[in-house]
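User: Please fill in residues for this 89-position structure.
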C-alpha cells in the first residue's frame, strides 16, 4: 500500500476539523507520568454510594488486592459495561 492509498482509503476517511480539534497532546496534560496524564483524560462521573451484595469470593479477591480495591471493582464493572454497550450498538 502506498502513501496515496492510505490517504484515499474509504474505510478510514480523513478526519474533519471538528474531530481534529478534540485531539489533546499528552505532553500538555497535567501529571508526572504517562499513567497520571491518561487518568486526567478520563472524564469521571459523580460517584454514588449504595449498598450491594457480592459473592464472598469476589469480595475476597478484590480485598486481597489491598488499597484501592473498590476502585478496581469499579474499573472491572466499567469494562463490562462498556463491552456490553459495544455489543448492543
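Assistant: Residues filled in for all 89 positions:
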Amino acid at each position: 500500500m502506498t502513501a496515496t492509498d492510505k490517504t484515499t482509503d474509504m474505510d478510514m476517511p480523513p478526519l474533519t476539523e471538528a474531530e481534529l480539534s478534540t485531539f489533546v497532546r499528552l505532553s500538555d496534560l497535567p501529571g508526572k507520568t504517562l499513567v497520571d496524564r491518561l487518568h486526567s483524560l478520563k472524564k469521571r462521573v459523580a460517584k454514588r454510594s449504595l449498598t450491594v451484595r457480592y459473592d464472598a469470593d469476589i469480595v475476597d479477591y478484590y480485598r486481597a488486592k489491598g488499597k484501592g480495591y473498590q476502585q478496581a471493582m469499579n474499573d472491572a464493572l466499567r469494562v463490562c459495561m462498556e463491552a456490553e454497550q459495544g455489543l448492543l450498538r
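For context: Helices lie at 3-7, 17-21, 34-41, 56-63, 69-88.
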